[in-house]
Design brief:
One of its GO terms (molecular function) is SNARE binding. The protein has 185 residues and is an all-alpha fold. It has 13 helices and no strands.
Length: 185
């Protein structure tokens, strides 16, 4: 109830209910993310409950607002919101996954959600993003592979290592992925 009365949450709610049209909505979702981010380092920083409520408003309003909602949930650092994020990722269609931007992929990796997304349509994009932006993101591919292996995703861990070490695509077989785990981890 308190989060619903927060002036920033009320503003987001009002904007979402008054603004219509797909172009307006896409821009509006990003504007809400920008608004919440602008409060991060101020005395008006939104508590997790308000971020949760704002993300739920975005999710309820339109499917096109999934990315802004996921961005807010990832940046919150709240375990419940991260679990909700994983649920949204694992329910994502291939079409929705293919439209995810680089910022969202980076936020998901920063939040440590690679292992939890293995069964999703977003996993190939996440792992490719990790490999292609490793320097700027600062992600440890070998540690991610070890986490994948520890979670029982041995083929995915091996494939990630093969790609990281520069193996040719023709060598990416199930058996080679499992073999490199013994050798490299």
């Amino acid at each position: 109830a308190t989060s619903e009365r927060n002036p920033w949450v009320m503003l987001a709610s009002l904007l979402l209910t008054r603004c219509q049209g797909s172009e307006v909505t896409l821009d509006l979702g990003q504007q809400i993310v920008t608004m919440v981010r602008s409060l991060f380092n101020t005395k008006h920083k939104l508590p997790v409950q308000c971020i949760r409520h704002t993300a739920q408003l975005l999710l309820q309003h339109q499917p096109s607002l999934l990315q802004p909602a996921l961005k807010l949930m990832c940046e919150s650092g709240d375990e419940q919101l991260l679990q909700l994020t994983l649920g949204q990722i694992n329910d994502m269609s291939a079409e929705t996954a293919s439209s995810c931007d680089a910022e969202l992929l980076s936020l998901l990796l920063d939040a440590g959600l690679l292992v939890g997304s293995v069964s999703s349509t977003l996993y190939p994009l996440l792992s490719a993003h990790m490999l292609s932006h490793q320097q700027e993101g600062g992600w440890d591919v070998e540690r991610a592979a070890a986490e994948l292996m520890a979670a029982g995703h041995r083929p995915e861990a091996g494939s990630l290592l093969l790609a990281h070490r520069g193996a040719h695509q023709a060598q990416f077989t199930f058996n080679s992925a499992l073999a490199v785990l013994k050798q490299w981890l």
